[in-house]
Write a structure and sequence with these properties.
Structural class: mainly beta
Largest sheet: 8 strands, antiparallel
Strand content: over 45%
Distance between the termini: 47 Å
Number of helices: 1
Oligomer: single chain
Number of strands: 8
Length: about 120
């Protein structure tokens, strides 16, 4: 039974591809990621779908996404409300070093509660 579940998880992961689709020159992008994982030690399989909507213009990017649980050792789609993730970022480049200023938060629909508000910067060199 374990081998069948592992083979199914590998097949689903291999069959799912994630790529964002740009909608013309509007700056709007749509994408999704399907994550299939089997924990061998706990003998538990999880499948999570993460759709994302993005908008970018003039160096600023805004994202809206959610992790939707589809399977958690049993079919659970629709049983649990997702947490919605919000993000905004602005990219900068100075002396060949790319940096980004970002702000992100989330909202848990089930608990009706906002997550932590995080403001930060990243540097790539």
């Amino acid at each position: 039974m374990k081998i069948a579940v592992i083979a199914t998880a590998v097949a689903l992961t291999a069959a799912s591809s994630a790529s964002a689709m740009d909608l013309g020159s509007t700056g709007i992008s749509l994408g999704a990621e399907l994550d299939t994982a089997y924990n061998v030690d706990q003998e538990n399989m999880n499948i999570t779908l993460t759709p994302e909507l993005g908008y970018s213009r003039w160096g600023a990017a805004f994202t809206l996404g959610a992790d939707i649980a589809l399977y958690d050792d049993g079919f659970v789609a629709g049983d649990v409300l997702p947490t919605i993730d919000f993000g905004a970022s602005y990219g900068l480049e100075l002396y060949g070093i790319e940096s980004e200023i970002y702000l992100k938060t989330s909202y848990d629909l089930e608990a009706s509660d906002r997550g932590d508000l995080t403001i930060g910067t990243t540097f790539k060199f």
